[in-house]
Amino acid sequence: MDCKGVRPSKFTRIETSKRRMTKKEQVSKALALPPRDRSPTSLLDAADAASPWWEEVFLLRVGDTLALPRDLQFPRHPDCQAITVEKDFRSASRARLLRLRPSSASVILKAADVRQEAAVMSILRRMNQLWQQCEVRVCEELVQTVTYDIFSLSGKFGLVEVIPDSRNMRELAQCYPSERPLRVLHALKHDSKSLDRLAASTVAYLVAGYAVGLRDSHDDNIMLRADGLLFRVDFGSSAQTRDDGP
Description:
Elements: H1 10-31, E1 41-42, H2 53-57, E2 65-67, E3 72-73, E4 82-88, E5 96-101, E6 106-110, H3 115-133, E7 137-138, E8 141-142, E9 150-153, E10 157-161, E11 166-168, H4 169-175, H5 183-187, H6 192-212, E12 222-225, E13 230-232
Parallel strand pairs: 1-3
Antiparallel strand pairs: 2-4, 4-5, 5-6, 6-10, 7-8, 9-10, 11-12, 12-13
């Protein structure tokens, strides 16, 4: 029998649809990613735990130490076995300064969403690359801004890397209370090379701040590193869309 031109019955169309759906399911199953290997467990994967370690940190007092699970790896510090609470900033984000043991590195744990801050940091890294490619210099120093690692933990908590040998403007003012306007000059000990780095990094700070719309700069979030580099911290919530921006 010649079936050309004969439309399939409703029953046939349903059966064909079922077979196609079955094929889709088979393809999806074949392409499904295997479960992530959690041995050792990444710090960022630990959010799946019923009680993540960082929730326990907020129950600790300054000076207390928390041993981490042996299979847990800190980013860039795989040998970290424990953390010690060194400071409670008593901020709205309940920020805690943590010392990684046995290393001497430090991080800040926040009860806040740091994803916007991490996005801004990615922009700053890209700007550093462009300045380097174009050989942009001030006082013969390459224009660069200090960047650091920021990790989001479950979207409600975050880790921020601490830059060693750096202090904020408020701390410098306390070191030189009678000469507050000259605090940076005194902190750098009038070293010409450090002052050149200060000039170049200040240009980077101002240009980057304008480009991404940074606001709310004050003595607590403007930092100075011992080698003269000026940089900004805690800028996620202050990066806003500008009506008058470029």
